[in-house]
């Protein structure tokens, strides 16, 4: 489909220039002191119960216990309970957005409306507009920038810092923006989304996941990145490596406790964090790093105490690495912030069917500590066994006893697992066996989904502890800490093409845009420039000119956005 922007005057005319108003509207009033580095660590999908239970299990204080604490409100534009995409958009960009299965699950894109009156209004011209992130602002400020996660890196939290789309599910399109986003360090899973669907993922037996024919693995290497794929590669990086992608899994990495059995070559979150800081801190302008303990969330969805506790403790080790760096380099001034994106599961230390005042740490610990895999990992084993020898009670009881520490599975429980195995639509053993162990450990849950509870914010470095914040204020806090305002970043990086080229002919080709294809053509007199979507280049004739930001397209509003610099680049040609 080809349409000219001039045919769409009504859309173009609503163009704003009012983003300044919008961002100021959202900006916090508080003065924030300046920092050389900012490290944000996010344990996805948890609340204070997860932390308390992890602390009891660890038997010692968590690294975060030495930090200042306040609270964060997490609601999104359409619900008191947010999803990860809307939450990450809020603290990466300063904008509330929609997360709704029917309508849109926006990543660093404004919604078309705000359903909750508590979410601030914004001008109609902002509908579906991509909005700049803290990471993009840090990069413009000359800082090194990095993203570390244990999920695939195109998952909601890391992608919200680098990518813009109305749907969090388009992994190919989201990771493409990360590849062309000039990010210094990207560590996590998702290798298949760098590779075409007809090609083999390097070092793997599986095929790639892209349908646009692009080989982003090759693009990264052509752009000077070192790409490593396992712990050894990470540990043996050249000392002068400054731009590194670590693709440690085709899709998601495994849970921390599952690593030794299921994926021993993957590095831990703490190892990735340490190496990330080591690389980024070589930049004399400072750095911004986001670290996500991605899978606390998934174990909460499973009501699995093993995954929650062990992944939270793995996250805590990454926090220790960040704090050690901040404390041992006082001359650099490093702000460290820890906050979950949202609570999950309604987890509690204690449950309805127990004697609350006779609950000892060893009661809980003894129930969990014999597990050597998460419920997720056990599901894989039961499923494999069922495939090989067929579903049977003996093998289920054996696997659950050996790997999940439940040696006294009742007949009813075995039956429940067999029933789930027989489900022909969606086998989900995790959410069957997770609650079985929770019951034995005295751990309660109210839901298999997120909750709207406030979450804690731990901070190191601020001279004044913040009062309860809205999650959007975290974006402004980070931006101001690094010396910039997000409204300026929006004004420089994300400008409507119709405003920039109001005297030229614009043609938007959206063929295959859902597969990360499409481009904008600008023509004036004898000059013609092509701007491929989701890349940071302008093509004129045989020349490819690098841009300081991406060409962004909104499928919802059919508008294209470019860095402001393209106007002078085009004029100079
Ligand atoms: Zn989340």
Walk me through the topology.
Layout: E1 2-4, H1 9-13, H2 19-26, E2 37-43, H3 48-58, E3 68-73, H4 84-93, E4 99-100, E5 104-105, H5 134-140, E6 144-152, H6 156-160, H7 171-179, E7 185-189, H8 216-222, E8 226-228, H9 231-235, E9 244-247, H10 259-262, H11 269-280, E10 287-293, H12 296-301, H13 305-328, E11 334-338, E12 343-344, E13 348-349, H14 361-368, H15 375-389, H16 393-404, H17 411-421, H18 430-441, E14 443-444, E15 450-451, E16 455-460, E17 469-470, H19 471-481, H20 486-493, E18 495-496, H21 497-500, E19 505-509, E20 519-524, E21 527-532, E22 537-540, E23 543-546, E24 552-554, E25 559-562, H22 566-572
Parallel strand pairs: 2-10, 2-11, 3-17, 6-7, 6-10, 7-9, 8-9
Antiparallel strand pairs: 1-19, 3-16, 4-5, 11-16, 12-15, 13-14, 18-25, 19-20, 20-21, 22-23, 24-25
Helix pairs in contact: 2-20, 3-13, 4-19, 11-13, 14-18, 15-16, 15-18
Bound molecules: zinc ion.
Describe this structure in words.
The strands form seven sheets. This protein has a ten-stranded mixed beta sheet, sandwiched between helices. The chain has a four-stranded antiparallel beta sheet with strand order 1-19-20-21, with no helix packed on it. The two termini are 28 Å apart. A hairpin with a 2-residue loop joins β22 (537-540) and β23. The protein contains 22 helices and 25 strands. The protein is globular. The protein folds into two domains: 38-347 and 448-491, Alkaline Phosphatase, subunit A, CATH 3.40.720.10; 355-444, Diphtheria Toxin Repressor, domain 2 (Orthogonal Bundle). With 573 residues, it is α/β, with parallel strands linked by helices. It binds zinc ion. Zinc ion (ZN) binds at residues 44-45, 84, 297, 341-342.
């Amino acid at each position: 489909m080809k349409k000219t922007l001039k045919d769409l005057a009504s859309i173009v005319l609503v163009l704003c220039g009012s983003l300044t108003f919008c961002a100021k509207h959202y900006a916090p009033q508080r003065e924030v002191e300046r920092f050389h580095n900012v490290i944000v660590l996010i344990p996805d999908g948890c609340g204070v119960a997860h932390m308390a239970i992890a602390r009891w299990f660890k038997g010692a204080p968590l690294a975060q216990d030495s930090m200042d604490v306040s609270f964060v409100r997490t609601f999104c534009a359409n619900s008191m309970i947010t999803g990860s995409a809307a939450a990450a958009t809020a603290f990466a960009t300063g904008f509330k957005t929609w997360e709704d299965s029917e309508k849109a699950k926006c990543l660093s894109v404004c919604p078309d409306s705000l359903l909750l009156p508590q979410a601030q209004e914004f001008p109609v011209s902002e509908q579906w507009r991509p909005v700049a992130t803290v990471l993009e602002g840090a990069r413009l400020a000359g800082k090194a920038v990095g993203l570390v996660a244990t999920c695939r890196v195109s998952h909601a939290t890391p992608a919200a810092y680098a990518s813009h789309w109305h749907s969090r599910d388009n992994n190919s399109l989201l990771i493409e923006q990360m590849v062309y986003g000039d990010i210094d360090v990207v560590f996590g899973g998702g290798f298949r989304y760098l590779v075409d669907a007809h090609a083999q993922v390097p070092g793997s037996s599986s095929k790639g996941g892209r349908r646009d024919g692009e080989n982003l693995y090759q693009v990264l290497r052509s752009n000077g990145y070192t790409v490593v794929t396992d712990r050894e590669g990470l540990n043996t990086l050249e000392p002068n490596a400054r731009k590194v992608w670590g693709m440690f899994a085709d899709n998601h990495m495994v849970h921390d406790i599952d690593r030794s059995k299921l994926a021993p070559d993957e590095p831990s979150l703490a190892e990735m964090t340490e190496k990330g800081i080591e690389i980024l801190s070589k930049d004399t302008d400072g750095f911004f790093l986001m670290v996500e303990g991605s899978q606390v969330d998934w174990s909460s969805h499973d009501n699995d105490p093993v995954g929650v506790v062990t992944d939270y403790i793995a996250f805590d080790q990454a926090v220790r690495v960040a704090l050690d760096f901040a404390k041992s380099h006082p001359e650099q001034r490093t702000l460290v912030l820890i906050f979950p994106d949202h609570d999950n599961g309604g987890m509690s230390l204690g449950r309805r069917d127990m004697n609350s005042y006779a609950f000892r740490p060893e009661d809980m610990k003894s129930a969990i500590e014999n597990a050597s895999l998460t419920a997720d990992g056990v599901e894989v084993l039961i499923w494999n066994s069922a495939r090989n020898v067929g579903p049977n009670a003996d093998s289920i009881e054996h696997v659950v006893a050996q790997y999940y520490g439940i040696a006294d599975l009742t007949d009813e429980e075995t039956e429940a697992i067999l029933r789930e195995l027989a489900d022909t639509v969606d086998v989900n053993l995790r959410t069957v066996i997770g609650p079985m162990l929770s019951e034995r450990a005295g751990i309660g849950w109210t839901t298999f989904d997120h909750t709207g509870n406030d979450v804690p914010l731990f901070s190191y470095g601020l001279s004044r502890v913040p009062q309860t914040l809205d999650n959007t204020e975290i974006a402004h806090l980070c931006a101001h800490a690094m010396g910039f305002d997000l409204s300026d970043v929006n004004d420089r990086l994300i400008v409507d093409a119709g405003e920039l080229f109001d005297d030229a002919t614009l043609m938007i080709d959206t063929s295959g845009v859902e597969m990360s294809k499409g481009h904008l053509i600008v023509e004036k007199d004898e000059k013609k420039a092509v701007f491929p979507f989701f890349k940071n280049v302008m093509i004129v004739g045989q020349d490819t000119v690098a841009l300081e930001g991406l060409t962004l397209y909104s499928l919802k509003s059919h508008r294209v956005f470019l860095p402001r610099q393209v106007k002078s680049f085009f004029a100079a040609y």
